[in-house]
Amino acid sequence: MTPTAQSAKAREFCALAPIVPVIVVQDVAHAQPLAKALVAGGLKALEVTLRSACALEAIRAMVDVEGGVVGAGTLLTPADVKAAKAAGAQFGVAPGLTESLVKACEDEGLPLLPGAVTASEVMRALELGYDMLKFFPAETSGGAAALKAMGGPLPKVSFCPTGGVSLKNARDYLTLPNVMCVGGSLVAPQGMMSAGNWAAIEALATDAAALSRATLG
Hints:
This protein is an alpha/beta fold. The chain is built from eleven helices and eight strands.
């Protein structure tokens, strides 16, 4: 799968909802009920980060939840890409972009949402064929103002900003024409997961899913 095809697929995932939950699963027993709560609330694209021992197991469990599209985050190496694909991940997310990740995603047929934060990094991604990017870390890299400025010279690129995004500042990003969605852990707090409070998580997801350009205008 070429980078161009990967970005086209990533755009489809990013268009499913205004928020992509960035999830750290510490207990695989939480995976399915969490995914069901988020999907029921209207958030269909889910990013499970490879930051816990059970992350790949969680992906395997979540891909069986009807209506969800499950991806693997924090892909750093070709081995991560292979493991994510084998676990059933339907897309991958990386904090940056390397030649080895590009090749691995091409070989494995895994759509990648790579990270970029400077104009040079965005231009390099474009050169490789990626025009749907993760803007990370968003808040410490200039936030919505930086992305707005990026839209002038780089109008062909769309972004999913993550890193410091909250329900409060998500609106600042989602009003920008070059932002398709935002990502964050705001709808899957560890405390609620540990308590098994799936109803509260579904309510958070419902509020987040309501953040559309129509309601922001």
